[in-house]
Predict the 3D structure of the following.
Amino acid sequence: MGASQAKVDANAAAAKEVQLDGPFLDKDTATKRTGSISIGGRYSNARKLEEDYTLQPKIVGSGMSGPVHLAVGNVDGRKYAVKSFKKKGLSARRRAELKSEVQIYIALDHPHVARLENVYETDEELHLVMEFMAGGELYERLSAKKRYTEEAAADASRQMLRAVAYLHANKVAHRDLKLENFLYEKPDTDHLKLIDFGFAKFWDRSTHMTQACGSLHYVAPEVLKHCYTEKADVWSAGVIIFMLLSGAPPFSGTDREVLKKIQSGDIHWSSRFKRASPMAQDFVRKILVYDPEKRLSANDALAHPWIASSTSEDRSIDIDVLDSFRAYAHASHFKRAILSMMAWSLSGEERAALREEFLLMDTNKTGTITHCQLKDLLQETFHIDSHEADMLFQSLDVNNDNEIGYSEFLAAAMQGRVKAHEDVLRRTFQRFDSTQSGQITKENLRQILGETFEDEDIEELIREADTTGDGMISYDEFLDYFHRSDADDGNGVGANNAPPVTSKKRRHRTEKLGKVLDKLILEECTVSTPTSQNEPETSSTPTSRFLRRRTVRAQTLPARVMTAKSGA
């Protein structure tokens, strides 16, 4: 990198610091990325954290941005993880880093990314409320097992790479992938999710990133040269996978020795690693490639036979999901807004009932379902024509961004599949009632949805559920409307072909979509037949020594590292 590039970076940093005042979240930018419900229902500068959660003294983890505390939801009694920051006294650089973390994290929505549940911001504090991952770190599980079976390593690798491929498809580089930043959902499951976006960055694919950051044993050679792309994440994932297969890191020695080996690409292909199958070895060797141009991308890695052969090729869609799609297309505008908000209020267990079907439909492995993907799946499974598939896609694409995100899928697929418990409905109501007045007002809806939702006026949405005529929706009215509209929609199963009663301004497109889905159900009926975290053992092996001392925590790597000459 030359002096001119350094000057450009310095100018960009200076420009960024000019915008440091004000809230940590740019709502307009975030809304354009993920939609009004996703942002409006999760970000608040009016409510206080204590109104919804009770912080516990226990620290459940630490990341680049500081310690993570346990919290309990006041409504549902569930456990959550909370990172809190005092805004006063933050340096310009630290403030910019936190702004970047919030802006990126709130835009993420994927089954293999730990969910950001809520963001609370006041003049003095910032709180990030996250999904609590009770299963602990991948690091801890590897410490207990010493190394993974090849089948388990392939399964974990596939999950990690799906998270990474999703980030990269959305122009986000994580920049600190390591064993500690992948957590298991529960102790008795193998579902992994990615955490800690303190070093994550939106990046322009036409440029290179220059800040050298991350954790020592996982950093890619090109990061040490101040010139890298998202492929640096793939190298880090390769280091993790090497360790799962062999039980030891590919680089050993003192910190200085490890850095020199990384700079020269001097990987120790140990005898333990060579016990893996030829296919597994080929996979890792194609990821831990010194030249990033020759290194597999995350998406290409998912297509490698070692990963692809560990997954099912069955692409059939559950008929119950299609029933739910049909009910969603029939639903009134306000009911669809409620379902969209409910998708962000579901617990991990409730989302688990649907996430595998979302991943099944995401055939491109980018974390969203495209128009072509949905069309192909519907045509192959239900033999519908192109026009009908187009209309169905329009129904599900609430954000009008030409792709169906994870929570958009959940909103459309949950009816008849996920029971609407009272605590879920209460959390959903609270997301709309941003001022905690006990009523959903027109102002609340405008703040969250904008002036219209699906071209429907906010006042018309209020009238759908306001039985008292006072221009607001109480919690009792909210419950009554939800369950009443559920009955009108047929709850997604066995409804008749006549469209339900909806608002007077209901669009023709929505009615027509309902008929399309009715036809899909009928066609399906004619062609289908009903059918503890353990402490690592003490040992004198290099593996256990590495795991006992852990790796160097994430950091911006020191200047002496940056200026060291590469051995390659």
